[in-house]
Give the backbone structure.
Amino acid sequence: MSLKRLTVALVVSVCAFAAHAAAQKNELSGLIGRTFISDQTIPGAPAFDNRLRIGDGLTFEVNYARRVLDAGLFSLSLEVPFVFSFDQDLHAALPNRIPENYKSYFVTPSARVNVFPDLAVSPWVSVGGGFGHFSASSNLLFGGQTPGNTGTTTGVFQAGVGLDVRLIHKFSLRGEVRDFWSGAPQLNVNTSNSRQTNLFVGGGLVWHF
């Protein structure tokens, strides 16, 4: 093949890919990871162990996004991350006070900016807000049943960073870190925190359509 024909073929291929990428304005992604939460101090608890420890729960994310602005070097998408964890284990030296675990979910409509959105590697940042819900187990850590309310609904601020790596034209790999800054769950004990950071670290697959 001559250089002229090769150049024409490359230009046609690039234009076709760019047109196809531009047509793919929607995304659906699924990720799996862990949520990390710092220990919290319990005022009045035994001095040798006055910490509430929250386990690194297995966490899932489902996310729908739609690109609303394409400026070449960057794009703007509106996304709705839905992040949920079925089991955040709890531990504290307070007999018959602390639930065994709790479940949680966060829904935070957000704006996401991708850099080099149609290239093989695209870093991004996301900011948004919504709400979350914590549901504590009715079983106490050292036996018995939880008295009173076991559910907490709270406002949530979300900020995240990530990296998308294109596999083929319709699929990408995604790695991300998102901070869901929420109110503290109702766990039958007062801690030093009225709000907490729920740091989700995960990875998964993105479908572009």
